Amino acid sequence: MRKFLPLAMILTLVFTMLLFGTPAGAAEKETTLYNLTSVCRPDDKTVQLRITNDSDQDENYTLSWKGGSEKFEGIVKAHGKAVQNVPWTSANDTWILDIAGQQVTTEVGDKPKCDPEVPAPALTVTGDGKGNVFASITNAKEAKGTWTYLIEDYPPIVHMGVEGLKDEANFEHYLSPMIPSGMYKVTVIFEGVADGKAVKLTRTISLKVEVQPHQYKMAYQYKFEDCKHKIVGQVLGAKEISTWWEIEILKQDGTRAAYKDQMGSRSTLFSAEFDVLPAGTYTVSVALVPDSTYIDGKPGFAAATFPLEVTEEQVKACKSSTPQPPSSGNQNIGGRLPDTSTAYPVAAATGVAVLLAGVTLLVVRRFS
């Protein structure tokens, strides 16, 4: 019987250690939910402490200086961190964190100086009475992403895949001159990468828009012939002109499908041909760039948009080695804009939105 006595004593000792060691282990596990670390020194008399809360709820905390009278109180968010600057006298300074009924102690140590605070990228948006809207990303050397342009009571317009935005990248846009005068709420959103970090920047401004003077009518003609989309635009009623012509074909999501332009033109007529597009619905915009257009010696503007439907039959016929004319025959579309945006209320409401979508994407340019 005696030979089993040592074994019984060992088992009793192990059982006792497990029984009384469990609460200590649990308490240690709970303590790891909160932490206090010394980060850096903003100046010669201050040290920055970081409080970490890995629990599922916000917690109040108190920081007290061991051997001193200073105390600091605050709140640290659930699964968050809080930073507190406290006095520093030496590397041996000790601070105590009281949080959720627990204490965490740290010695500040000899920490390096804090890096200067780098301002985060920000979005600035301005506008003028002519409807010009300018947006720029500040505090960033390089940015690339997607711009979304919103105007009150109109659907969003998105310009995808902006490239080459450097040195406080800027985004320039013109409101459609067909929009009636009045106050509008304009929102610009940038979502992408700035200086290597993912960002989403939003800014909203109020903008007073005045009806653009010296508007001219834009006539257009469309023809699908020889597997080419042939588009012609003509400014009506103009004797002489100096302008920047743009013809753009947009997909339904607002991205560009095809584009041609002519800068420094002195012709009231501009034509362009495009290769056959994939089957689908598009919007064609024929316009003069507002700030680059003078008609009869005065600033002017003219634009027209129209829908374009490309059928599977057209695409298949053009892919054939011996193309056959589409069963629907050649499409010919032509017309001009009404005298005013109020002449035909229902059509104007639709036309304004479509025109806005077309003109918006034509003028995103001049990135510096």
Total helices: the number is: 3
Helical fraction: 10-25%
- CATH homologous superfamily designation of the largest domain: Macroglobulin (MG2) domain
Oligomer designation = single chain
Order of helices and strands: HEEEEEEEEEEEEEEEEEEEEEEEHEH
CATH topology of the largest domain: Immunoglobulin-like
User: Helix/strand/pairing class, anyone?
Assistant: mainly beta
User: Which percent range describes the beta-strand content?
Assistant: over 45%
Write down the domain tally: 3
CATH architecture of the largest domain: Sandwich
Largest sheet: 6 strands, antiparallel
Signal peptide: 1-26
Transmembrane segments: 343-364
Keywords: Membrane, Signal, Transmembrane, Transmembrane helix
Region (Disordered): 318-337
For the structure shown, list the relevant keywords.
368 residues; Immunoglobulin-like; six-stranded antiparallel beta sheet; 51% strand; elongated
Describe this structure in words.
The chain has helices spanning 5-31, 312-319, 345-362, and strands at residues 34-43, 46-53, 59-65, 71-76, 80-87, 94-99, 102-107, 122-127, 132-138, 142-151, 157-166, 170-174, 182-194, 197-209, 217-225, 228-236, 241-250, 256-265, 269-275, 280-288, 294-295, 298-299, 303-310, 332-336. By secondary structure, the protein is mainly beta. It folds into three domains: 29-115, Immunoglobulins (Immunoglobulin-like), CATH 2.60.40.10; 122-209, Immunoglobulin-like (Sandwich); 217-337, Immunoglobulin-like, CATH 2.60.40. The strands form six sheets. Strands 17, 18, 20, 21, 22 and 23 form a six-stranded antiparallel beta sheet that branches. The longest helix is centred in the first third of the chain and has 27 residues, at 5-31. The model is unreliable at 22-30, 158-169 and 335-368 (pLDDT under 50). Residues 1-26 form the signal peptide. Residues 319-337 have a biased composition (Polar residues). Keywords: Membrane, Signal, Transmembrane, Transmembrane helix. The chain crosses the membrane at residues 343-364.
